[in-house]
Hints:
Blueprint: E1 2-7, E2 10-11, E3 25-26, E4 31-34, E5 43-49, E6 54-59, H1 72-79, E7 82-87, H2 88-95, E8 105-109, H3 115-123, E9 128-132, H4 135-140, H5 145-159, E10 165-169, H6 178-184, E11 189-194, H7 197-208, H8 217-229, H9 243-263, E12 268-272, H10 273-278, H11 280-291, H12 298-302, H13 327-338, H14 359-377
Parallel strand pairs: 8-10, 8-11, 9-10, 11-12
Antiparallel strand pairs: 1-4, 1-7, 2-3, 5-6, 6-7
Amino acid sequence: MQARSQKIRARFKPVKGTVAIPQNFLAWGGTEMELPDTLPQNITPYALDYNKREVVMTETPSDYNLIGEPFLYHEQFKNAQNIMRVSYDDWFAWMREQPMPEKPIFICGIGRSGTTLITRALDRLPQTLVYDEPDVYMQMVRLQGEEQRNILQASTASFNQHGTRLAIKHRSFVSYMMDTILDVYPDAKVLFMYRSTIPWVLSNMRLILRTPAPRGVVHEIVRYFFKRYLPHLNPADFRPLRMVEAGALLWLEFLGHYVELREKGYDILGVRYEDLIAAPESVMSQIFDYCELPQSQVPEALKAFDRNSQKGTIFSRDQLGDVKLTEKQRGYIMGMLERHEWLNDPHIRLSGSVVPVHKDELATATDDADKVAVQGGD
Length: 378
């Protein structure tokens, strides 16, 4: 695979959590080189250059481990020494010679709903290779058809390492590619993480409002994201909405899309955040069963629950804004839900989701089974 290697002269990203773009790096000139058939783990896809039809990869220090690190796009931006530019044509040709990943795991969801926690849990397993939010997937959401499928497959091949189970966690908008993912990888395991409406809207407001901005600017940024990554929505529809109403509408869109894909027959496992926190052992056991991971490794995965999964990251709690919802704002959120025909329960557990068994219920069921067994023996 032919690449043009360029030394990074400067980097620009005023807001750390924004989606990666080629313009984050200032680089020019460079040298042509041939990348090996098996990409080293320190050369990873970073962003798409739509106009030049190139993928921009970052080359980080060979002794710096990106696997399992939170928010890959931020680690790439912070640690990259060089960028590698590869044309789509060369990238796709290389991809067609690569082995297909075996039963890859894609962690999708609405964000702020336990996706990072699940990623930390899977990262504890010896056989899984975990990447946390490569933004190249976020950038392909707006694409369609064969080009989207090719870029999906080329990106996944670029992260895949033979002999491991590849697990990739995604930003929320990638949920709109869950059908494409399963079309390209029929044996993939796709998780859809979600949580109750009001805590989700509040968590996102704390994230969005962590950086002071003039009145109205944040709303325009939200509308821009809708236009760029959910093109089927009319961004003008969001202009008259209060921010909490826009959040509720987005919650409805994400959850409704999951239900639609399930009704079409796509095998996606729903995981409700509140269930994951209330009964982690039961929920993780069912996730492992769905993902075809050994049940014997569930206890190791559960050790990830002993600490705040985002502590020390750019999205840790001390980095978020101090926001509280008023009763009026809660009313606005519920008003949005009440207009929906069926998705109007803020605590809904969607069809196809994990149903947890709590320890006391499990103990009762075991006792009952023992009693039946004893009675049968008599």
